[in-house]
Amino acid sequence: MISEQLIAELENEKNRCPKDLCVFNNLPDKIKSDMYYVAAAVAINGINLAFASFELRNKKEIVLAAVKNNGNALRYASEDLRADKEVVLAAVANDGFSIEHASDDLRSDKEVASLALTKEGYALKFVSENLHKDKDVALAAASNDPYSLSFLTSDLMEDESFVLDTVKVSHGFSLVFASSCLLDDRNFVLSAVTISGYSLAFVSSKLKADREIVLTAVKNSGSALKYASDELKQDRDIVLASVSNYGAAIEYASNSLKEDLEIIKTAVINSGMAFKYVPPAFKTNKLLISEWLQLNPCIYEFITPEFKTDRELAFNAIKENGTLLEYAPSNFKSDKEMVLAAIETFAGALEFASDELRANKDVVLAAVKTRGYVLEFAADYLKSDKEIVEAAMDHKIKENGLSHHYIDRKVKIDKNFFIKILSLDPSYISATPSNLSKDIDVAKFAVGKNGNLLQFLTKEMRSNKNVVMEAVKQCGSTLRFASEALRSDKEVVRTAINNDKNAIVYASIELQKDSSLMDELS
Predict the structure, then answer these.
(1) Residue ranges per domain, the chain?
(2) Which contacts (CB < 8 Å, 24+ apart) does range 337-340 have?
(3) Would you say 134 and 159 are in contact if contact means Cβ atoms under 8 Å apart?
(4) Which pTM does this prediction carry?
(5) Which tens digits make up the pLDDT trace of 406-430?
């Protein structure tokens, strides 16, 4: 049986690059020819196939296990298996670039190529050239990575219908590789900017000065105004359409239109960032700013310091969008009413509160009741407050994000409270404090909730029959995390298989060959 130590060593280096792998490579040839050891090694890291005997690199089930773990393990398979469609499909499903190591015939196979390209569009580089002319294959590549179109023949990138299809999947970027004839074709370009306004960036200068084309483009994507001719950047209808779609596009308008009040108002209501490009005279008009803030509080981030310190303006903006507390002056970050208003719409605003308010129990409790993860921003002493921790944990089951690192050790070492934490989120067993790491009650409670948590327990707990029995009752496949001795224990194995018949693969070789056990379970 493969030892726990060897499994741990293999796991430890599974993320290293192939040239740095040494654990399996340094084992005796006898082991590298043993199907059981090799199967375990490639299941942990498919690249370990490189060190297996030639016989096992020609064994389909071994190679399949390897390429399912790491598609590029295909390069170490025998020539016959690199020509096996099932093996190659499994490899490219894991890593599209692995098609590079497939046989010539399979690199010409449309099904294999299409699957590879849905994973990695740039893998078109390794697909047989005869498939480069296939529109379906080329489109699959473009959908994943428009740069892959650089490998296509010029004929295909002159095909109007095909190129428009690529515009749809690349937001116009595919036009980098389109023929100059198409980019100067008015009908084609009008179709392209209708699909994606960003297409305007790549068309001929003549068509960037075409009013109908530019108007169509900016209605589709306001930022396309950047690519319009200078003359059309002075066209009021075009600029108004542009900022209606994307307010910050006012940056590209002519200077005269940047002073048009309707255009300014439309822009800043649409995007707070647009305020950056508003002429100075409008940035000092309190009446306008007050009006605009009511319509779009995000403008607060960009207004002048003079108006950021106006409490009424600040409070009205921050109560609508708590994230804006980040841009408030420090005295507002110490203002309890202001901070509570921010937290009401965005609990994470606690991060921007003053040290004093992050140490205020009322403020922190209000925040963690909304989003448990913000316990991270509380003062250290509140991370050991049971009421606050419990409130944060209670919300954690409704969201992702509360790390055990944010809970003070003083709370975690309390057995009853730690079990309460586990009842809300059993995965916290991975953060068991040292004083509870050998506590059977804690271990059994966790694996009873989720058997897979057995893997996070100490070696001693994984060798405790009562704990392991509780785990395999809940999830039979967790047998793989049990100690060697317990994977050889009939009662434990029987319980695991009753839960999941496939758990037999994790039992000792002796029990896998035990006919009486097999008869009993059949």
Answers:
(1) 154-278, 284-412, 423-522
(2) 338/311, 338/314, 339/363, 340/366
(3) no
(4) 0.67
(5) 555 555 555 666 666 666 666 667 6
